[in-house]
Write a structure and sequence with these properties.
Alkaline Phosphatase, subunit A; ten-stranded mixed sheet; four-stranded antiparallel sheet; Arylsulfatase; N-acetylglucosamine-6-sulfatase activity; Alkaline_phosphatase_core_sf; glycoprotein; signal
């Protein structure tokens, strides 16, 4: 209660006596990495956001590909609840978003309902095209200028639709600069009205340069950059961390069998990342101009500024060509910075957060809430951040990770056999199935990634001991490691039994069950963390749990083919199951739910 009152007071003081709702500026890049130090190569971001705001060092996307990740971000619902799991139909893209009702039920609509004028410039959705941009129009914006497929990722050939008008070609102009200019214009428009505003700026940088036509010869190469940045980062090399083109390979399924990259490919990959850093410089310059504009208009202290990306990126880690879609931290661990009234300056928060939490956070800042979120507001105010940093148990420690479909390599050497790409083989090579369920868990004394693939493969990495995620404890050669491993004095098998049960809850959770999954297993409320669940009294209960599995490998979410869905529920001596609204029966001293 004390923290809440302090935060409320700080906010009211920051906003002034009028208690006008704060403005919100949201900057969303595309495919920006954390682990190759891209943030460190953006000086204006460091000056105006990192040094003037809070950096969230344990922030994750929940699905490592752009369209499903953006739907997760803008709805606050897990991908298995949005049913948008790919970038193109039938499992994703704008037509799927419309079909699922999301176009009329997501954050910009809710912000308008909260009294905000809303604006958007840049990339909104995949498969949002020059042909279907008005069928229907994207909902929820007072002003918009959307980059449209099939030209979205062509840096010098953007097509955009402004406020629902016919698409216009910007051939020859640099796409991130165009997005920036549109943002300046919308900021001017927004500040002429008395209502608070919510402006999203979504440049395509540093995504690969992609030509989607003709579809049978897709070309995916390094991003293009503005000529004024061509001289930068000549000496940059991708960090040669332990997982950079390793001699001992981590991973399972197709990842496990990748050959090592040769010197030609490594040289190409270094230049690929240099191009990504150069492309981000336009975004960095935009950040400075947006900040200075807000300052000139005396709005900076009344505005929350968010900076993040849709998913991470790998280049050469685990012997992989440029790309994303994996469960490794390179792909799911991403930047998040928040600056604004009541937020600590130059602060680091280690609270575990994800994109599922961003819509609840923004809506809370707008003075609203909803009951159908799968996430929960992030601690943003200084006292909240301090409290969360000092008490890790005050917030959940898990991130629900999921993916369906293909792993698509990018770049000139996209073939995983090491041969050069002629374009035609891109999707053929990518058809290896990459469907998996993952769990990222960060507690006071542990940092774990656990996954189950549709192929039956499993991964377990102790990320605290193995940041590169190279030593999979399920490998046959890791038997000795498994025998000697423990958390809180409990064996590897006992830890995995708990993680599998937790993942079983998360794989089809909804609402509060996604935030407090341990409470599904232990309705009495006495288990909130992995360490709590590792109590010996629960051993038999977890051994009896149904296990996460897939009936088949599919390219999209088909619930009926994803094995068991309902976990057993522990009987703590009190009949609390009526609170869950599900029928139940008792067996072997435990409660089990059924549908």
């Amino acid at each position: 209660m004390f923290v809440t009152s302090v935060c409320t007071t700080l906010l009211l003081l920051a906003l002034g006596a009028t208690a006008k709702k704060p403005n919100i500026l949201f900057i969303l890049t595309d495919d920006q990495d954390w682990h190759m130090q891209s943030l460190e190569h953006m000086p204006f971001l460091q000056k105006y956001l990192v040094q003037e705001g809070t950096l969230y060092t344990n922030h994750y996307c929940t699905v490592a590909i752009c369209c499903p990740s953006r739907v997760n971000l803008w709805t606050g619902r897990a991908a298995h609840n949005t049913n948008v799991t790919d970038v193109f139909p039938p499992y994703g893209g704008y037509p799927k978003i419309v079909h699922e009702g999301i176009n009329s039920n997501y954050l910009p609509i809710w912000m308008q309902d909260s009294g905000y004028n809303t604006y958007y410039t840049g990339k909104l959705w995949n498969a949002h095209t020059v042909d279907n941009y008005n069928a229907p129009y994207a909902g929820g914006y007072n002003g918009s200028d959307f980059i449209l497929d099939p030209y979205t990722y062509e840096y010098y050939n953007a097509w955009m639709s402004r406020n629902g008008q016919a698409p216009v070609s910007y051939k020859g102009q640099y796409s991130p600069d165009i997005t920036a200019e549109k943002a300046y214009g919308f900021l001017e428009e927004a500040t002429q009205h008395k209502e608070p505003w919510f402006l999203t700026v979504a440049p395509i940088a540093p995504h690969s340069n992609v030509k989607l036509e003709p579809i049978d010869a897709v070309d995916m190469d390094a991003p293009k950059y503005a000529k004024r940045h061509a001289h930068l980062f000549k000496d940059y090399r991708i960090p040669r961390d332990a997982n950079f083109n390793p001699e001992k390979q981590g991973g399972v399924a197709w990842v496990k069998t990748l050959p090592r990259l040769n010197d030609t490919v490594i040289e190409y990959n270094d230049e690929f990342q240099r191009s990504r850093l150069r492309a981000l410089q336009s975004v960095d310059e935009m950040i400075e101009k947006l900040i200075k504009t807000l300052e000139e208009k005396n709005l900076l202290e009344d505005t929350y500024i968010f900076f993040t990306t849709d998913n991470g990126y790998h280049i050469s880690q685990h012997r992989m060509h440029p790309g994303k879609e994996c469960g490794f931290d390179t792909d799911i661990h991403i930047p998040l910075i928040i600056r604004g009234p009541g937020i600590a300056r130059n602060r680091i928060s280690d609270a575990v957060t994800s994109h599922t939490d961003l819509s609840p956070t923004i809506l809370k800042l707008a003075g609203q809430t909803r009951e159908d979120f799968d996430g929960t507001p992030i601690p943003v105010y200084e006292q909240e951040v301090l409290a969360a940093n000092n008490n890790r148990n005050s917030r959940h420690e898990h991130v629900n990770i999921e993916f369906w479909g293909m792993a698509i390599p990018e770049g000139q050497y996209a073939h995983y056999d090491g041969g050069p790409s002629d374009g035609n083989g891109l999707y053929k090579d990518a058809t290896r199935n990459n469907t998996y369920k993952g769990l990222r868990l960060i507690g006071e004394d542990y940092s774990i990634y656990y996954s189950v693939w549709c192929t039956g493969d499993r991964e377990y990495y102790d990320v605290a001991l193995d940041p590169g995620q190279l030593d999979n404890y399920f490998d046959a050669e890791a038997e000795a490691t498994r025998r000697g491993y423990s958390i809180a004095g409990r064996s590897f098998e006992e830890v995995v039994n708990r993680l599998d049960a937790l993942m079983l809850v998360l794989k089809s959770c909804k609402g509060r069950d996604c935030v407090e999954p341990w409470s599904v297993l232990h309705p009495g409320g006495n288990v909130k963390t992995l360490k709590d669940a590792l109590a010996k009294t629960f051993d038999a209960f977890y051994e009896e749990q149904p296990k996460v599995s897939f009936d088949s490998c599919e390219l999209g979410y088909i619930k009926e083919l994803e094995g068991p869905q309902i976990p057993n529920v522990y009987d703590d001596g009190e009949e609390r199951l009526e609170l869950r609204g599900q029928p139940s029966f008792k067996y072997q001293g435990h409660w089990s739910l059924f549908t």
